[in-house]
Structures are given as C-alpha cells and as structure tokens.
Write a structure and sequence with these properties.
- This protein has one domain: ABC-type transport auxiliary lipoprotein component (Rossmann fold, 3-Layer(aba) Sandwich), CATH 3.40.50.
- The chain contains three helices and eight strands.
- α2 crosses α3.
C-alpha cells in the first residue's frame, strides 16, 4: 500500500523542503453563521492530539510516520481555529447567531456546550484529509451530557498542494458540525 509515494504527497513534501517562503493557512466555515439571537451555543474547549498541536501542517506519509511541513503553517492557534469554524458551521445548521467559543465569561445565556477531542487531523499519503474527533454536547446550565460520539471521516483533495489539504480539512469540519447538529434537538 505504501510502496510508492503518490504524486500528491511528493508535491506536498517537495514544496515544504525547497527554499519556499513560509505560507500560512486558515480553516474556513462553509458560510457565515446567521446573525441575531437564538439558543446560545458554546464550542470548546478543543483538545488536540499532541502530534497536531503545532503551528505546522502534518501529513502521514507511511503507516507509522509523519511528515511535518516546515514552511506551511497554520495562520493562528489550531484549536482556536477549529472552535471558531465549528461554531460558525453549527450556527448555520442550528439557525443561531448566539455563538461563543471557549472560554466565555458565564453560562447564563447559553443553552448548549460542545466539546471536541481531535484525535486525528492531517493529510494522508493517498490524497485524503482525515479526521477523528470525539464530541460531546452538554445542556447548560448544569453541564448535563446529552450526546456523545466519535466522528471519523476522510475527504479527497481536489488538487495537489497544501491549499487543497486545508480546503479538504475545512470540509471535514463542516461534516463534523452536521454530525453534531443532528444530535441537538431544535427548540
């Protein structure tokens, strides 16, 4: 399965090794959250697996080996970015603009909290972005667990390069939000 390196991975690794200036990438929501009020929703905290809790994009180039892209980095804190994008994606699906990312000052105006444990979030040698995320939904106040699940998915890159990888990772976060939203009853 991993005897030859696919062209997409070669292009990604070579771009990271050549004297290329640093590039910075950001995850994007599948659209803006609606404005206005509605049921308050908080997203966070987001916990990242150690191997992705870094400024660099990460690729799995063999079953037990990772490649870290030295010149291709996240534009900000990855956990905060995942919380922001997931919040906007959930707001769209749940029709609320009353969104917060962790930490927020108090729970009084919130009805739900979503926590995320991102166990995998990287590119793979076969031209896919992958995610494995445990998520939990709590009702507020009181933090009563109402739903919990592990979400695992892959998204094929539409082109070579890190920009395509981050676009695929953004799509994975939209799919994650759809999975979470399906477990939150509408009021």
């Amino acid at each position: 399965m991993y005897k030859t390196i696919p062209p997409v991975l070669c292009a990604l690794i070579l771009a990271g090794c050549a004297g290329v200036p640093r590039s910075f990438y950001m995850l994007t929501a599948d659209g803006p959250a609606p404005s206005g009020s509605g049921a308050g929703l908080g997203v966070g905290p987001v916990v990242l697996a150690e191997y992705i809790d870094r400024p660099n994009l990460v690729l799995q180039d063999a079953p037990n080996r990772l490649a870290v892209a030295e010149n291709h980095r996240w534009a900000g804190d990855l956990a905060a970015s995942i919380a922001r994008v997931t919040s906007a994606n959930l707001g769209r699906r749940l029709h609320t603009g009353n969104l917060r990312t962790y930490p927020w000052p108090h729970d009084e105006e919130m009805s739900r909290q979503v926590t995320l444990d991102i166990r995998q979030f990287h590119g793979s040698a076969d031209g896919y972005a992958v995610i494995e995320a445990g998520w939990r939904v709590y009702s507020l106040p009181g933090r009563k667990l109402t739903a919990s699940r592990t979400f695992v998915a892959r998204e094929q890159l539409v082109a070579d390069g890190y920009q395509a990888l981050v676009a695929a990772q953004s799509k994975l976060l939209a799919r994650l939000a759809a999975d979470i939203a399906a477990a939150i009853p509408s009021k």
